[in-house]
Amino acid sequence: MVPDLSRVPGVLGRIARRRLQLVEAAVPQPSPPLAGRPPSFAEALAAPGLSVIAEVKRKSPSEGAIADLDAAEVARAYARAGARAVSVLTEPEFFAGSDADLQAVRAAVALPVLRKDFVVHPLQLAEAHALGASAVLLIVAVLGPLTGAYLDAARRAGLDALVEVHDEREAELALEAGAEILGVNNRDLTTLRVDLTTAPRVARHLRTLGFAGLLVAESGYRSREELASLEGRFDAVLIGSSLARDPDPGAALRRLLGST
Ligand SMILES: O=P(O)(O)OC[C@@H](O)[C@@H](O)c1c[nH]c2ccccc12
Question: How crowded is residue 241: how many other Cβ atoms within 10 Å of its Cβ?
Fold first, then answer.
């Protein structure tokens, strides 16, 4: 049940194919037993108003180095500033993330944690659960027709899934697959270009098609005005670089939320 990655174009294809090599080469590591059940990601997003999912992000293919940060410390600052969930990149090469970052964040905050990675193998789902994640990212452009199978496998592993799309066609595929939490990425992962009109456009299309689940706007957000434009249209927004890059990520989030 591994997706056919030869058809994934651009940077996304490169990252996904490399990820599969790494996953297949890795020796499964036993994880220490988790203390308690992780909090619900879906419930955190469904809370009134626009929920912020704040991301722990060190580097990316589009921005290069972002910050040399301490994952647990940044997550605590996000939690104090009002984030409702924390996203942790665990892809090691293109994003300088790690499983250890996810475990550290899970231990540091009571918020649900999203494992942000390129899921290309079912093993990564059991692994996410064992690391303490409440949810995983599933990218339709990577998984294609296997999206539904991975969604079911995530549920069976006790995880919520944020299903990511970046155009109308992918959105329709995600709906057919039964996605309940849909993220629209403003960044085209094959070209890395950001266009903030993407999320509202695709969200409108999804609502027209009758999607009644949770909607998340992803990537490129830097200002209060941009967030205000999402109120009432999205349940949540995923913000990484503009927070992580700030010397004081908590203060950056408070400014975005208008609570300074
Ligand atoms: O740093 P930004 O522009 O605020 O974006 C955050 C998040 O949306 C972005 O990291 C992201 C969205 N989907 C992804 C898939 C893989 C890696 C990263 C991502």
Answer: 19
Distance 24 CA to ligand 1 centre (A): 24
pLDDT at site 34: 72
The residue among 106, 96, 127, 114 whose CA lies nearest residue 36 is: 106
185 lines ligand 1 (CB under 6 A): yes
Name the pTM for this structure. 0.97
Alpha carbon of 112 to ligand 1 centroid (Å): 17
**Does residue 97 have its Cβ closer than 6 Å to ligand 1?**
no
Res. 260 pLDDT band, cuts 50 70 90: low
Asked: is 40-257 a CATH 3.20.20.70 domain? The reply is: yes
Q: Which two tokens stand for residue 184?
A: 């629209």
Q: Using a 6 Å cutoff on CB, does residue 240 contact ligand 1?
A: yes
